[in-house]
Amino acid sequence: MEQFQLNHPTKIFFGENSLQEVGKQAKILGKIILVVTRGSAMEKTGIVKKLQESFTKEGVKGIFYSGMSGEPTLDEIQRAYEKLSGKKIDAVIGIGGGSALDSAKAISACLAEKKGITELLKSSSFSALPLILIPTTAGTGSEVSKGAILSDSKNEVKVGLRGESLLAKVAIIDPVLTYSLPKSVTILSGFDAFAHAVESIISTSANTFTRTLSEKAITDIYTNLPMVVKNPKNKNSRKEISFASFLMGYNLVFASTGLPHRIQYSFGTIPGMSHAMGLAILYPAWFAEAIKTIPEKMKLVGRAMGMTEKELASSTWQKKLQKRLEMFMKQMNLTKKLGDFNIQKKDLSLLADKVTGNMAMDPVYKGKQTILKILRKSW
Ligand SMILES: [Fe+2]
User: Fold this and answer.
1) What distance in angstroms lies between residue 249's CA and the mean position of ligand 1's atoms?
2) What is the distance in A from the centroid of ligand 1 to the CA of 268?
3) Which of 125, 170, 199, 305 is least enclosed, having the fewest CB within 10 Å?
């Protein structure tokens, strides 16, 4: 067992109706709280009303900002910063899917540093206003991670703002908020969490602690996600997925994601292709490559996906594991290819050139040829 060190400052509330805590926790951080959301969906589901009630009860003033899109762009963050920079704000709440939470993180840093987002991205360290993050989907784990992924639409890539100051003071994971999520959002966000689990288990930065969490998350998502797809009212399965998603956000502070995430970020904003959809397109090809290159690590994935020791000892275990992944994805209709998104085969090499970030964490990576091979098989 290797040595490891863990340091995570976030106070965590998990469980049904834990949203009730929000007013009390906000009050600890200040009197005037900026709430960043995606807007109409939050209002329709009554979440905004619940926040306002909780604030009123505790004597906290909320400023609501809802100008963010599904994949927040640098321009949107800049607009928010310019609109809000003159106001007195003590703390920031991000509530919604990963994009709302990432927007809240970026805006809180811009406001604390009094810098626009482009300038902030050049800083090696920066502060942020205290954050409370509340996910309404189960997938990104952004509520406990220290990164914010934003779209740079000019250069057509995604960029990451990363720093310790983006670790929330408080994360509230209330599975009730996911009970009425549409099927497509449930599938895509759940698959993102599954990808975090698989990529962090094989990561070169994994340790006994993170691997234990990854194993649990793979098993729980692999078992429960298809059950929720069949019966969206299955609260127990939704709770398990919320928990697994949170565990993987926590994990990503200590062990990184791998090639599928690095490649997906380089896609930038392809119309109709969300982060998780991009991952789902790349997964079968990357998974097959991983089985070939790092068989012992992939046996951990096989075990977590329910394969028996007898199956794993057979000469056909690689085929069986690949089949398991593909069946899991097929049940959820995750069968799209790059070609379905108007990407031309001749452009794959250009896409491969755009992949940046630390690839050393993924032992599957052997150079640009690995990325090209995955892209070609995913086309
Ligand atoms: Fe992700």
Assistant:
1) 9
2) 14
3) 125
